[in-house]
Design goal:
Layout lengths: L21 H27 L17 H52 L7 H5 L19 E4 L8 E5 L16
Antiparallel strand pairs: 1-2
Length: 181
């Protein structure tokens, strides 16, 4: 589809009596319509098509091909596979830090109970009942409060829980099982 280039004429061309023929009016209107339609067409293409797309005639903006989409998806997959191990390692490190803190608090509370009462608690629930802690903490690896491994006192005449470990049999990043911390 080709558009004829209109000649530039003043918008309000005066019609003289001698030139006021229907042929002259038709030519004038035809030229104005061509100029207006080409202006609208150029404006429409300019607004519709960005510089990064190839615009050809009335076809409009070109879309992405299947190959281009596959390449983008595969690059995103490669980047995700590179980032995932680092992300997983950070999650494990944060759980290990949480477990260390929880074990420190539990051991400290057990020692406070022993100092106040002269003996170790029989169960971890005794710490909650006597208001040493509000609730039993959740083991970050087993995600329960009932999996704690308790170590009974081996001293003669002492009974009760002397130490506590995680109930998880997983191995930490430094190679030591969590139930030996």
């Amino acid at each position: 589809m080709s558009i004829q280039k209109a000649t530039r004429q003043p918008l309000m061309e005066p019609f003289t009596e001698s030139g006021n023929t229907t042929e002259h009016i038709e030519t004038y209107v035809h030229n104005k319509l061509i100029w207006i339609s080409s202006f609208i067409w150029r404006t429409h293409i300019t607004l519709k098509c960005a510089d990064i797309f190839k615009c050809e005639g009335n076809k409009g903006a070109r879309g992405f091909t299947l190959i281009e989409m596959l390449i983008v998806v595969s690059i995103m997959g490669i980047l995700a596979s590179i980032a995932m191990p680092s992300f997983q390692k950070n999650i494990i490190q944060s759980r290990e830090a949480s477990l260390k803190n929880t074990l420190f608090v539990l051991r400290d509370v057990i020692d406070q109970y022993n100092a106040d009462n002269g003996h170790y608690p029989e169960t971890l629930d005794a710490l909650v009942e006597n208001n040493y802690i509000r609730t039993l903490p959740v083991d970050p690896f087993t995600k329960t409060t009932t999996s704690w491994i308790t170590v009974l006192s081996d001293q003669e005449g002492e009974t009760g829980i002397y130490d506590v470990h995680s109930g998880s049999y997983k191995v930490s990043l430094d190679g030591v099982p969590y139930n030996e911390w």
